[in-house]
Amino acid sequence: MTPVELSRTVLRAVRCAVDEGELRVAVPERVRVAPPGPGGCGDYATNVALQLARPAGRAAQHVAEVLRPRLLRDPGVGDVVITGPGFLNISLADAAPVALVREILRSGTSYGHGDALKGRTVRLRAVSEARAVVHADVVARVLRSQGALVHLDDPAGVLIRPVPAPADPAPLGPDAGRWALLYPAPHDRPRIGGEHLVQRESNPLFRVRYAHARTRALLRNAGDLGYGPEPGPVAEARSLLRVLADHPRVLAAAAAQHAPDRLARHLVAVADALPPLLPAVLPLGEEKPSAAHRARLALADAAGTVLAGGLSLLGIDAPDHL
Q1: What is the pLDDT of residues 105-144, one digit of tens each?
Q2: How distant, in Å, are the alpha carbons of 40, 77, 201, 207, 321 from that of 281?
Q3: Ramachandran sector of residue 151 (left: φ over 0; alpha: ψ -120 to 50; beta: rest)
Q4: pTM
Q5: Which residues fall within 8 angstroms of residue 254, CB to CB, at 6 or more apart?
Q6: Which of 22, 61, 95, 196 is the most exposed, having the fewest neighbouring CB atoms within 10 Å of its CB?
């Protein structure tokens, strides 16, 4: 279950409580879910009970108690804990991570694409400057991933004007040059230097591309051993599953805010969450491939798929060998 799907689940719980007369409020258009903050627990948390408390004329704790049993009816929800003044902390059911991996592998590099902006026409134009042109191109790609009809270089369009690059990015090559222009927020001054070319952990682009290449190497090595990816439960991969599940929300936010840097930083988060999984993907020594190895391989494959899809939207190559 992705954050977008969980948000819809929370909205259904609110709508159900309203329909059954337990709450008298206008059902909000959307509900935000996010990783729990200090004092929270579970996979995600929402403050919807606090938002509805005043219009409902009830304490937030009471609203949360009304919503909790309705959330627990959803098969994708494992537990709901109320903390603080009325935060709902939601743990996903054990089957939810398996379903997430299946969804990513089924969708391929289109995972996270949606129709939130379907029917909306967006007109864009960029100032005549390298960074602005690249930003406009990627903003158009991300908007299209969410169903928008985009007219690029439209004279009447929204002007894309990030802080200009201090130097010509062309000497970095197309991939590193794009990353150098896209990774900083539009209002930040980008650095155009050799740090984007070094193949070490200090270079975020290298970490993302290396993580992708590692997942492809694992698939090749597993194939040589006679097994392939098969989604299943994976212990101690919560951080990786969380950032993978968050990918659709990040894409939607990057589209809505015209902020490709959000996607670039998210890919770094995926890459940084992957290494703890990798040593246990392949059997060691005389060990035979098991269901656990297949499940870990499927999760690694899913992570590589998200990295490849994200890099593609940024217009950057995702090589299988690095």
Answers
A1: 999 999 999 998 999 999 999 999 999 999 999 999 999 9
A2: 31, 27, 22, 19, 18
A3: beta
A4: 0.80
A5: 142, 260, 262, 263
A6: 95
